[in-house]
Every structure is written in structure tokens, then in C-alpha cells.
């Protein structure tokens, strides 16, 4: 079983221009919990004010999901998490030279001591603590392993491997995560960014290398190009590796639309799993195949993610599709008429720069019927 720790409410909200209100954060947390997501990274208590109020409101809900607050290795951050009623926290430290330089002026020993003290403080307050290596992908490999082993020795229950700027490919991810997994007794979590479009692939590579937890966001929302998308990771784990998460995937479309509406940003039609075109077939050869056997051009049944198949009439359609759509409207054609309707469909689709509605197709069919009568 692979564990999903969704960070829509933390890294997702760090996307430029995204700012959830308290009620929105609560509603998203409830939705994720209701579909069986195991853990929610709910925000950054150290931000205080409304962010802290939202986190407390989520903590008060008594959800099934574990709740995690994000912290720097700073005691006041952890104190803020405690004030929000969290029992589980994440402490992040930078592990690459470039990040340690800007945040700790290169003083890595002092940074590790700060992590040790922060972990001790959190553990003394009864908290369960996960530790993250920010910029793990650019860290010196032995330093990364040393830092993770220290975190384990000081009581962390999990270590997060972060491809903070999304610069790994799946092969390198596999190598680096395998070495980390082999060096630790605690579980490893993947946190991957999509700067090169590889966030989901790298999260999966980490799982193949032995990571057992993935940090995801709905629609892949997150810093810059975003994070590994919840819906992509869960469906890929299921269909590529036969790994179960227990999450109700039939709600993915509704969840995606809910989050997209909340952030005032539509999901692109070609977005994997939840985009409008994901199960839409316009091209003649594809529709011809799908009409006989949907598996010809669909990786899995659209109902698994709350979707329906759509047959769309447009520039690339062929006769079989036109005949099928018109047959559903009670119109049965011979070959010559279908071809002339198809020619008109193509001209119209190019002039409108879109596919046609069923009514537009019916109107073309009616015009052609008059001309041929
Ligand atoms: C890779 C990631 O996504 S990390 C998460 C990033 N998320 C965010 O930054 C969103 C929320 N952040 C905030 O609200 C604010 O940045 C706060 C509350 C955390 C801190 O605010 P400020 O006190 O105003 O500091 P500011 O944001 O300007 O600078 C960050 C400070 O944190 C320090 N810092 C950064 N990472 C860490 C860390 N892991 N551990 C300890 N200190 C850290 C920096 O060195 C800097 O310290 P300085 O103020 O002494 O120079
Ligand atoms: O949790 C951490 O350690 C950092 C997480 C993060 O957002 C990142 O590295 O991109």
C-alpha cells in the first residue's frame, strides 16, 4: 500500500496568486478526507492569523486523515503548530549547498543542531515528526544521507526527499532515492515538482525505488509549475504497478473542479485524468476504434475517475463517427450523404475554430438532405 500525503493546502496554496479562505481550506480538507486520502499537509502555522485559524478549524473537525503542519527548524514555528492543535508536524531543512548558503550562511553544523533541537522540542511536546530535505535532488549525496540518518536518530518517523526545483529525471530519481531508502529504517516520502513536466514520473520512480509515501496536490497545483498531481499519482500507481491507495477515484473529477473553482483557474482540457478532453474522441480513426472497443484509445474506463466518454464531431472526424452521432438522433445515412456532411463539418470546424455541437451537425445534415432531395 502506498501512502498519500496531500499538500494542496500547503504547497498547492503556495502557487502564485492562490489564497484560500478559511472556509475553502476546511471544505477542501473535508473533501480529501471523505474520499480516503490518508494524510493532509494543511498549511504553515507560523504564518499566524487566518492561516492558523484555518488549520485549527481543520484540526477541530476530527477527520480520519492525519493532519500535518509545515515548519522550519524554528521553535516558534513548532509552537505555532502546537497552538493549532496539531499532533503531527513536518520540519524542513535545506540540504543542498546553495540552499544552506542562503538560509544558514553555509553553517551546516549549526543547521543540523537546530534540527536536533527542533525535533527534541517537538517530541517533548508529544508530536509525531516528519523531516524534509529541501532541495534533496541537488544535495551532495552523502550529506543528504547523513542528514536523513540524523533525523531518524533524533526521532523523525519519516524522511521527505524533495526535488524542490524539479530538475531530476526518473532514472536519477530512482538511483538517489534507492540509496536513501537503503540507508534508512524509516519510510521515505517523495515530494516532486513539475518544472520539467516530470513530477508524476519522478514520484513514481521514487516509489519504484522503495519510497512508500507521496506528497501530492489536486490538479498538480503548487509552486511554479506545480507538484505531482494526486489524480495522476493514484491512477498511475493503480494501473502501472497494481498498487492500491484505497482512495475513491470516482470523485476525482468533482474534486478537481471544486479546487479549480476555488482557485479561479480552469484545468487545461488536455490535463491528464481530469481535463475535459481526457476521454473525448474526435479523430476518425480513434472514434472508429472506440466505437468497437473503447480500450483501443482509452487507458482505463472513464467511470473510474468520475468521467464519461464523449464523441466529438470536428475537423478530424470520419464517416463512422458522423453516422454514429446522427444515428443516436434517429438519422440513418448512406455513404455519399455522409461524405458530403463530413466535408461541411470540416469547413465549419475550421471556420469556427472548434468542434461542432450535435445541433450544428443536425443542421448540416438537414441542409444536405434538402440539397439532395
Ligand atoms: C520549498 C518550500 O516550499 S519551503 C516553504 C515555503 N513557503 C513559504 O514561504 C510560505 C509561508 N511563509 C511565510 O509565511 C513566511 O516566509 C514565514 C512566516 C515562514 C517566515 O516569515 P519571515 O519571518 O517574514 O521571513 P522571510 O520569509 O522573509 O525569510 C525566511 C526566513 O526563514 C529562514 N528559513 C528558511 N528556511 C528555513 C528552515 N528550513 N529552517 C529554519 N529557517 C529557515 C530564512 O533563513 C529566513 O530567515 P531570516 O528572516 O532570519 O533571514
Ligand atoms: O518539506 C520540505 O522539506 C520542503 C518541501 C517543498 O515544498 C519543496 O522542497 O519544494
Automatic annotation (TrEMBL):
SUPFAM superfamilies: Aldolase. It is an enzyme of class 2 (transferase). GO terms for molecular function: homocitrate synthase activity. Pfam families: HCS_D2, HMGL-like. Keywords: Acyltransferase, Nitrogen fixation, Transferase. Its EC number is 2.3.3.14. GO terms for biological process: carboxylic acid metabolic process; nitrogen fixation. It catalyses: acetyl-CoA + 2-oxoglutarate + H2O = (2R)-homocitrate + CoA + H(+). Residues 2-253 form the Pyruvate carboxyltransferase domain. InterPro entries: AIPM/Hcit_synth_CS, Aldolase_TIM, LeuA/HCS_post-cat, NifV/FrbC, PYR_CT. Belongs to the alpha-IPM synthase/homocitrate synthase family. This protein is a Fe-Mo-cofactor biosynthetic component. This is Homocitrate synthase. It comes from Thermoleptolyngbya sichuanensis A183. The gene is nifV.
Amino acid at each position: 500500500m502506498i501512502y498519500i500525503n496531500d499538500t494542496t493546502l500547503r504547497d498547492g496554496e503556495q502557487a502564485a496568486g492562490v489564497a484560500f479562505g478559511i472556509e475553502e481550506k476546511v471544505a477542501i480538507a473535508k473533501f480529501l478526507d471523505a474520499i480516503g486520502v490518508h494524510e493532509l499537509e494543511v498549511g504553515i502555522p507560523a504564518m499566524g492569523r487566518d492561516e492558523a485559524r484555518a488549520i485549527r478549524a481543520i484540526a477541530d473537525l476530527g477527520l480520519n486523515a492525519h493532519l500535518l503542519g509545515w515548519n522550519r527548524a524554528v521553535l516558534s514555528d513548532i509552537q505555532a503548530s502546537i497552538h493549532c492543535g496539531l499532533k503531527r508536524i513536518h520540519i524542513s531543512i535545506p540540504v543542498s549547498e546553495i540552499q544552506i548558503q542562503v538560509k544558514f550562511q553555509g553553517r551546516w553544523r549549526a543547521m543540523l543542531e537546530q534540527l536536533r533541537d527542533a525535533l527534541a522540542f517537538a517530541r517533548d511536546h508529544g508530536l509525531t515528526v516528519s523531516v524534509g530535505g529541501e532541495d534533496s535532488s541537488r544535495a551532495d549525496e552523502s550529506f543528504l544521507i547523513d542528514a536523513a540518518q540524523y533525523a531518524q536518530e533524533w526521532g523523525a518517523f519519516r524522511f521527505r526527499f524533495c526535488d524542490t526545483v524539479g530538475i531530476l529525471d526518473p532514472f536519477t530519481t530512482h538511483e538517489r532515492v534507492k540509496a536513501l531508502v537503503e540507508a534508512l529504517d524509516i519510510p521515505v516520502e517523495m515530494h516532486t515538482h513539475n518544472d520539467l513536466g516530470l513530477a508524476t514520473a519522478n514520484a513514481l520512480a521514487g516509489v519504484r525505488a522503495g519510497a512508500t509515501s507521496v506528497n501530492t496536490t489536486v490538479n498538480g497545483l503548487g509552486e511554479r509549475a506545480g507538484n505531482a498531481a494526486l489524480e495522476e499519482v493514484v491512477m498511475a500507481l493503480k494501473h502501472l504497478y497494481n498498487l492500491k491507495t484505497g482512495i475513491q477515484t470516482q470523485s476525482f473529477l468533482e474534486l478537481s473542479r471544486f479546487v479549480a473553482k476555488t482557485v479561479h483557474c480552469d484545468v487545461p482540457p488536455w490535463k491528464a485524468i481530469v481535463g475535459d478532453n481526457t476521454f473525448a474522441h474526435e479523430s476518425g480513426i480513434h472514434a472508429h476504434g472506440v466505437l468497437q472497443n473503447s480500450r483501443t484509445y482509452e487507458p482505463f474506463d472513464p467511470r473510474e475517475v468520475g468521467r464519461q466518454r464523449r464523441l466529438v464531431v470536428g475537423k478530424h472526424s470520419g464517416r463512422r463517427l458522423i453516422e454514429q452521432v446522427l444515428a443516436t438522433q434517429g438519422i440513418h445515412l448512406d455513404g455519399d450523404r455522409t461524405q458530403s456532411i463530413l466535408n461541411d463539418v470540416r469547413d465549419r470546424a475550421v471556420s469556427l475554430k472548434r468542434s461542432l455541437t450535435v445541433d450544428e451537425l443536425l443542421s448540416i445534415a438537414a441542409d444536405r438532405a434538402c440539397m439532395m432531395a
